[in-house]
Amino acid sequence: MVLNVIVVDDSAMMRLVIGRALRIAGLPIGRIDEAGDGAAALAVLRTRPFDLAIIDINMPVMNGLELIEAIGRDELLAPLPIVVVSTEASKSQLAGMRDAGIRFVRKPFDPEHLLEAVVGALGGAP
Predict the structure, then answer these.
(1) What integer pLDDT is reported at residue 101 of this predicted model?
(2) What's phi and psi for 53, nearest 5 deg?
(3) Which of 36, 57, 92, 96 is exposed most, by the fewest CB atoms within 10 A?
(4) Domain-by-domain residue ranges, the chain?
């Protein structure tokens, strides 16, 4: 099985770094789509299936938390595993993410931490 992933971050460089880290980690990556904000990501998510979303919190137009809420309200998108990769999150945000089964990786990250979060979000098997 190959994984189709969407990486949502307002930094093109960070999207590139995350994509490379996923491929270097040896994950069976098929397609990596990118979006620079939550609204653009939501539009892409509604066009084709994805196996994983990697989302930043601080972005223009629609931030990552708003995107996660929109995904959760959409019955077709709600089961999508999510990993948040961000520089910040409050303790209450982290607790809410944990309760929702969302993994969190703090930037800057080690590729091993990203791999661990992705494998955990996917239920232990990519």
Answers:
(1) 85
(2) -120, 130
(3) 92
(4) 3-121
Q: What is the pLDDT of residue 126?
A: 52
CATH fold of the domain at 3-121: Rossmann fold (3.40.50)
Q: Nearest CA to 103 among 90, 92, 88, 113? A: 113
**String of DSSP letters for the chain:** -PEEEEEE-S-HHHHHHHHHHHHHTT--EEEEEEESSHHHHHHHHTTS--SEEEE-S--SSS-HHHHHHHHHHSTTTTT--EEEEES---HHHHHHHHHTT-EEEESS--HHHHHHHHHHHTTS--
Mean pLDDT by groups of 10 residues along the chain of 126 residues: 94 95 90 97 96 94 94 95 86 81 89 91 76
